[in-house]
Design a protein that fits this description.
It contains nine helices and seven strands; from the N terminus they run αβαβαβαβαβαβαααβ. By secondary structure, it is of the alpha/beta class. The chain has one domain: 3-Layer(aba) Sandwich (Rossmann fold). It has a seven-stranded parallel beta sheet with strand order 3-2-1-4-5-6-7, with helices on both faces. The relative contact order is 0.15.
Amino acid sequence: MKMQTLFDLSGKTAIVTGCNTGLGQGMAVALADAGADIVGVNRSDASATRAGVEATGRRYVDVAADLASTRDIPGIVAAALAAFGRIDILVNNAGIIRRADALDFTESDWDDVVNVNLRTAFFLAQAVARQFVAQGGGGKIVNIASMLSFQGGIRVPSYTASKSGVLGLTRLLACEWAKRGINVNAIAPGYMETSNTVALRADANRNRAILERIPADRWGTPADLAGAVVFLASAASDYVHGHTLAVDGGWLAR
C-alpha cells in the first residue's frame, strides 16, 4: 500500500465527542482533512467546527448530547448511521476537570468527572464497537488520555483517576477486540493551550514552571494532535493495539 493511501480516510465516518472547541475541534478538522466525514457530539454550539470541516470539502453532522450520562449513546450511534450509513472511527475526546485539594474534594466533583471521562467513554466505545462488529471490517477507537494517566498531579483527584482509567481501559479493550479488527489506542496530550489550562497559563509562576519542564519550550496546540489522531484512525496503525501515544513536547522524557 502506498504511503499516502495508508493515511487516507476517504469514505470513512468519524464520531468525535467534545469537538466544539480546542483539541476536539482540531482533531475533527484533521480527520476531515484526511478525508473523513464527521459526526460531532457536543453540548455547546459547534458552528466553528462545522465551518472547519466543511472547508475541507467533507460533511459535518452535529449531535447534541450530554455525556454526563449514558442515556444519549443510542441516539449518537443512530444519528451517525442515519447520516452516513456506517461508523469507522470513534474519538472519545469529551472530558471535564474539577480542581480542589484532595482533603476537600466532594463526591459530586468526583462523580461528575468520572462519569464523563471514564464511564460514558467506555459505554460509547462499547456501542460503537458493537456497530463495528455488526457491519464488519473492524474500526478504530481513539481515547484521549492525559499526562496524568502516567503521573499523579495535584488538586485533580477525579481527573487523575479517570485518565489513569482511560489508559487501562484502552489496553483492556485492545486485548479483547484486536482479534475483531478493532484498534483501540489513546493519545495523551501534554500541556495544551485550551480552555482547561487558562488558569495555569495566566499564573505567571505556574506557567514558567511548566515551560521549564517541557523540552520543546512551548505549550502544545490543537494542531499538534493532527498527525497523531490521523495515524491512529487510519490503516497506518493497523498493527498498533493498546498503545497510549504521548504528544507532550517531551514532558515525560524529563
